[in-house]
Amino acid sequence: MADIDVKIAQWKLVEVGRVVLIRSGPYTGKLAAIVEIVDHRRVLVDGPSTEEKKIVPRHVLPLSHATLTHFVIPKLPRAAGTGPVKKLWEKNEIDGKWAQSGFAQKTERAERRKNLTDFERFKVLRLRKQARYEVQKAHAKLRAAAPKA
């Protein structure tokens, strides 16, 4: 018999302590933690972020308005108040981990591109043209140096 290495699937489960990204509503783009599961479509969330503008008050959120992240606050008790949630949020450095994630960086990059002025867009165009020219020049040099068959 062959040795088989069985791994558990990396599912993102709806569970108490799971960090979610809110996709719609007044708190769009902010993070919150699931504190309690109301039913199969709604959860109670609380987002005690360390940054003032990213705080999400405790409220019921439909799961259709949330995206589950890979981050989980371990050992978060069910229906925990804002105080314990905030302590565990800071202890697990959720804001820092989120800022390092690829999804957050991609979103931030898109937001920055969206807010460029006309002149800044022109500068980006010129820089991309310069980079493309340098790549083409290096590629031509490699082709010229390659032996002809």
UniProtKB/TrEMBL annotation:
GO terms for molecular function: RNA binding; structural constituent of ribosome. It comes from the Eukaryota. Its main location: cytoplasm. InterPro entries: KOW (IPR005824), Rib_uL2_dom2 (IPR014722), Ribosomal_eL14 (IPR039660), Ribosomal_eL14_dom (IPR002784), Translation_prot_SH3-like_sf (IPR008991). The keyword Cytoplasm applies. Residues 13-40 form the KOW domain. Keywords: Cytoplasm, Ribonucleoprotein, Ribosomal protein. One of its GO terms (cellular component) is cytosolic large ribosomal subunit. The keyword Glycosyltransferase does not apply. It holds the Pfam family KOW. GO terms for biological process: ribosomal large subunit biogenesis; translation. It is found in: Cytoplasm. Belongs to the eukaryotic ribosomal protein eL14 family. Component of the ribosome, a large ribonucleoprotein complex responsible for the synthesis of proteins in the cell. The small ribosomal subunit (SSU) binds messenger RNAs (mRNAs) and translates the encoded message by selecting cognate aminoacyl-transfer RNA (tRNA) molecules. The large subunit (LSU) contains the ribosomal catalytic site termed the peptidyl transferase center (PTC), which catalyzes the formation of peptide bonds, thereby polymerizing the amino acids delivered by tRNAs into a polypeptide chain. This is KOW domain-containing protein.
